[in-house]
Amino acid sequence: MRKLLTAAGLAAAVLAVAACASSSSSSSSAAAGGSSGTTLMVKTIGSAQVLTNSAGFTLYSFGPDTSTTSNCTGSCATFWPPVKGPATAGSGVTGTLSVITRSDGTMQATYDGHPLYTYAADTAPGDNKGNGLNASGGVWHEVTVSGTAPASSASPSSHGYGY
After folding, report:
1. What are the strands of the beta sheet with 60-62, ordered from one edge?
2. C-alpha 99 chain-centroid distance
3. Which one of 67, 69, 70, 160 counts the least CB within 10 Å of its CB?
4. Which residues, 6+ apart, have CB-to-CB distance to 121 below 8 Å?
């Protein structure tokens, strides 16, 4: 009987991990902007008008990036998935949209010269857990409609994530 319960417990754990992996994949895909042709939206988060993807996930910029180069590759891009380009402007999106070619050859959307990312720890539309984080060699900020970090954003901090 004990072996049966242990086997059942193991099977349940495997199913739970599989379900989490499945839902992580789909929400990462949604958070990352899905397929080419992502529509960018505007949403009020806190007191700031910030950009989101069409699923409502906050978009971020990375301090070390330039208007032509993403400096978030490898494991960084696992935690901060690049928004696939090209992107289109939804209602209220007034900045300049463009694309850059990443080092892996994929296209990444940019807004007013800032390559765009989502954050894997944002699990629901409207989350902005990545705003103000100092991770992966630089500070991350939610992208406002004006293309700058919001005045009310958190001060840069290190949360010990180590990536």
Report:
1. 60-62, 138-142, 134-135
2. 16
3. 160
4. 79, 127, 129, 130
pLDDT of amino acid 146: 83
Alpha-carbon distance of 17 to 23, in angstroms, equals: 10
User: What confidence score (pLDDT) does residue 4 get?
Assistant: 41
Q: Residue 82: is the preceding peptide bond cis (ω within 30°)?
A: no
Q: What local confidence, expressed as pLDDT, does residue 46 receive? A: 87
Output phi, psi for 48, to 5 deg: -105, 145
Task: Write the secondary structure of the chain as one string of H (helix), E (strand) and C (coil).
Answer: CHHHHHHHHHHHHHHHHHHHHHHHHHHHHHHCCCCCCEEEEEEEECCEEEEECCCCCECEEECCCCCCCCCCCCHHHHHCCECECCEEECCCCCCCEEEEECCCCCEEEEECCEECECCCCCCCCCCCCCCCEEECCEEEEECECCCCCCCCCCCCECCCCCC
Query: What's the pLDDT score for residue 31?
Result: 41
Average pLDDT over residues 51-57: 96
